[in-house]
Write a structure and sequence with these properties.
By secondary structure, the chain is mainly beta.
């Protein structure tokens, strides 16, 4: 133990090995995931902005959709969208913003940033709206929700991760809570 007096305060530093800083593995068990719900969002045609700052910028309007799962059901409200930047090397940066209306009438704001990665030829097929096997790409997001207190207030108190599947005229996002 190392101690140093500074004014009227004594600072102590333990020099012993702390189990939290163990070099042989994590300090706590890995978190688990619990399936919460899926969003199937319908989409309008892509709006291409073109090459800006070394990336192909696009906007995909969200026209509606459904929400189903053990934790929530409802609809996706029209008017949101997905802002994408397709970068060289098969990386697409994504940020979707839209609203869900739960079956009880609660309106929930969704902000869902993430990445989609694949071989450049797969990214190009996805960009053209062609069918692609979901195992050919990595599509993960970290959604956040803005919702008033009440039956869906729990969504502000959990961390979520999600996996996406892009279909020609819709996207399906499966949402999981991190436990």
């Amino acid at each position: 133990m190392f101690a140093k007096r500074i004014g009227s305060v004594t600072l102590s530093l333990a020099v012993a090995v702390c189990p939290v800083l163990a070099a042989d593995g994590p300090a706590a068990p890995a978190p688990s995931l619990t399936y919460a719900f899926s969003v199937r969002a319908t989409l309008d045609p892509v709006v291409e902005q073109g090459e800006v700052d070394s990336g192909r910028r696009r906007f995909i309007p969200v026209t509606g959709g459904t929400v189903d799962g053990p934790a929530m059901s409802g609809t996706v409200l029209p008017g949101g969208g997905d802002w994408q930047v397709i970068l060289p090397g098969g990386l697409t940066s994504i940020e979707a913003r839209y609203f869900i209306k739960a079956s009880d009438g609660t309106v929930i704001e969704v902000t869902n940033p993430g990445v989609r990665t694949a071989a450049p030829d797969v990214i190009e097929k996805l960009a053209k709206g062609e069918p692609v096997d979901p195992s050919a790409y990595y599509f993960r997001t970290t959604p956040r929700f803005v919702v008033k207190d009440g039956p869906h207030g729990w969504m502000r108190r959990k961390v979520f991760v999600a996996r996406g599947v892009r279909n020609p005229d819709n996207v399906v996002i499966d949402f999981y809570t991190v436990e």
